[in-house]
Amino acid sequence: MVMQFLLIANIKCSGSLSGINSGDIADFVTYCNTNLLKKGAPSGGGAVIDQWNVAGEKIKLKLVSDRYVRVHDALLRLKNELTKLLGKHRIGLRGVEIEDYRILMDWDEDWQLKKLPFVKTLKQERGTLTLALDVDESALANRIPDRIVRLLEDKKEAAKWKGKSEHWELLFESEKKPFYFDKDPTEEMANRCWIRHAAGRGQFVYGPQITKIFRAFERILFDEIFTPLGYEEMIFPKFVSWDVWKRSGHAKGIYPEAYYVCTPKTRDPDYWEEVIDYYKVTNEVPVDMIMKRIENVGGMCYAQCPPSWVFLQGKTMPDDILPVKVFDRSGTSHRYESGGLHGIERLDEFHRVEILWMGKKEQVIEHSKQLRAKYRHIFDEILDIEWREAWVTPWFMAQEGKAGLAELREVGTIDYEGVLPYSAKMLEFQNVSVNGDKYPKGFSVKLQSGEQLWSGCSGVGLQRWAAVFLAQKGLDPDNWSEKFRSAVGELPEVFRFL
Ligand code: SER
Ligand code: ZN
């Protein structure tokens, strides 16, 4: 792809340049154009000073480059040399004003670009894209132009995937199982007052019966997985700060689905008095007034495992403690789901047991196989449900807004899907993922041997397990397997309503 960069910069100096021999500056420009701004570029490539002009205390430069030694890099190189040259005359550099920065590139995409950060104007015509940037010296030092080019490549990649459905490949299918129910379990549970829609969006209050079923699911996980496979429990944070989501990649795509968390700008009661008074007088919560007094600091737990990595961040572990196996069941996850009424199969607030293991590559892959065998046993022998496994886009890529597959076949996500007899749709109710080196790298976790640490995780959605199980077997324990019935015990009857 052809790419061209143009930069007009005014370099301000600490004194008049009139005393400097113009031949010296011309020599400097020749040196730049033949040597300094070519270093590292293939022959014929690199940057050049296309025009230059010295007036008073200012040097005006027009730089042009291809993709090698881009004009902002050229400017940096040249400034260092110029500092040396002017130093001989006891003149220093005061600063650089960027008058114009343009990027031109081939652009054959059939979709329109909208707004881009740091871009003043954007022209898309006859196979060329021209961007005029709004950048200062520090934005150039931070390589903003390079990042804009990368962003465009990202967008092109995303456009290729758009419209295509996410990757899905069947890996395993269970036997057919008897179904004893053909209704929507959410409705049936609501009728029996096992659950009630809560005050929040996609949120329920779970009554004693269904809660006991959730706890039975957890007990099955303990008996079949945690105890025999040597897992220990941890408590992961449920508020996630942006620093975590920058490292986990969620900062690249979570925005339409996050539950945002804000803190007060100050705890000073005086600052809040107006809000308090307004509420007392109107009985309305003045959300607009609140919005001005708070600031966003992150969001609610979304993927469950990412904030736990802070525990290991920057640490080195001895190899002999591997594989490490832990789980968290300490709280809710939150996602802003697409509109419409959904039952417990699609919630804004849900409960999940997150299972996390780490080790060397072979250990992590091997453990994912052990887990899959355990799950198969649970679904076939205890819950007795009809389900299947599919190889899908890894969750961490999907959550960054990427489609497709990880490059390595060893890294990726297996989704577990269950039949919902009432809906003809399948429901994804958990996953098992090998996440490769992504998290250890993102959070700088190392092994003593220097080998690369890998990790995997598996999220067990309690409501999703219930949605599949109850849809197939119904709410009547007589139709449940003996094993599951005894895992649950008596269903408690606590409330009655008139
Ligand atoms: N962290 C994984 C996910 O969010 C597994 O729970 O899908
Ligand atoms: Zn996870």
Helix percentage: 25-40%
The low-pLDDT segments are none
User: In this structure, how is the largest beta sheet organized?
Assistant: 9 strands, mixed
Gyration radius, in Å: 30 Å
**Mean pLDDT value:** 95
CATH architectural group of the largest domain: 2-Layer Sandwich
User: What is the domain tally?
Assistant: 2
Number of strands: 22
Determine the N-to-C terminus distance. Answer: 73 Å
Query: What is the C-level CATH assignment of the largest domain?
Result: Alpha Beta
Structural class: alpha+beta
Small molecules bound in the structure, each named once: serine, zinc ion
Beta-strand proportion: 25-35%
Q: What's the shape? A: elongated
What does this structure look like?
The chain has 498 residues and is an alpha+beta fold. The chain folds into two domains: 3-162, Alpha-Beta Plaits; 168-237 and 305-488, Bira Bifunctional Protein, Domain 2 (BirA Bifunctional Protein, domain 2, 2-Layer Sandwich), CATH 3.30.930. 32% of the residues lie in helices and 28% in strands. The chain has 14 helices and 22 strands. Strands 7, 10, 15, 16, 17, 18, 19, 20 and 22 form a nine-stranded mixed β-sheet that branches. A six-stranded antiparallel β-sheet has the order 2-3-1-4-6-5, with helices on one face. The relative contact order is 0.12. The mean pLDDT is 95. Bound molecules: serine and zinc ion. Serine binds at residues 303-305, 354, 395, 431, 457, 459.
